[in-house]
Design goal:
The protein has 107 residues and is α+β, with helices and mostly antiparallel strands. The protein is built from two helices and six strands. A hairpin with a 6-residue loop joins strand 1 and strand 2.
């Protein structure tokens, strides 16, 4: 079972208490974007096997969105952080690299 800590309220919650929101740190495109950029935003996802950054909502708790780094193959959670963060925190990247030395990193 996947357990994530909500950085907003501090509760460690099982995945049944959370709602997934897809890939984190996407560059959003809207009105005025080219068809190719908007199509890539809507449909192209990395979906890697390994470390992945995702959006989650504490649906049955505080209701706030947050971001999480986890391994999609093992479900190992490296950490969570507020949704307003533009890039993963440096200490989280360091923790991932410490456990996954061959990880290519966040783009």
């Amino acid at each position: 079972m996947l357990i994530l800590e909500c950085p907003c309220c501090g509760v460690r919650a099982e995945e049944s208490e959370l709602a997934p929101g897809g890939e984190a740190h996407l560059k959003r495109f809207g009105a005025g974007a080219s068809d190719e950029d908007f199509e890539a935003y809507m449909f192209a996802r990395k979906n890697p096997k390994g470390v992945h950054f995702e959006r989650w909502r504490h649906a049955h708790g505080c209701g706030k969105w947050f971001l999480a780094a986890r391994d999609t193959a093992t479900l190992e959670v490296f950490g969570t952080y507020p949704a307003q963060t533009k890039a993963p925190p440096a200490e989280l990247i360091a923790a991932i690299k410490a456990k996954r030395p061959h990880w290519e990193g966040y783009e």
